[in-house]
Fold:
Amino acid sequence: MNIRQERIEKLPTIGQIINRHEKSAAFRPILGRARLRVAIAREIKRVRERAGLTQTALATALGVSQAMVGRLESVKDKRIPSLELLAKIASATRSRIVLDQPGIHVEVEAPGYPGGTGRREKGGEQILRPLLHA
Structure:
């Protein structure tokens, strides 16, 4: 083993770095936002795939580009989509989107979602049941 490999092996893992800084007041909000963004990306991909849609098909249903759907599903994108966009995704996939992270719980259901408990707005176009807690 050469000196470079030894140095690399001595470096802490990402998990070790996160554990070390998790209690830091400055790092906690950054970590929370990153975890929320990853949860949103995974949930969007999950409901799209469960609905049997490609990124292009979902993009067409939403009236956006395929690249935007790709960004929404990417864990590298740092933007957080609006509840309105999540509601449109739930409607297009006829599903329920659930985000349950420390400090936040949001549920967005499509109109007519089986077993749904969401609130139906006038005209039945939008169902949102966000529940935010600290």
Notes: Strands lie at 96-101, 104-109, 119-120, 127-131. The mean pLDDT is 81. The CA atoms of residues 30 and 91 lie 30 Å apart. The two ends are 50 Å apart (CA to CA).
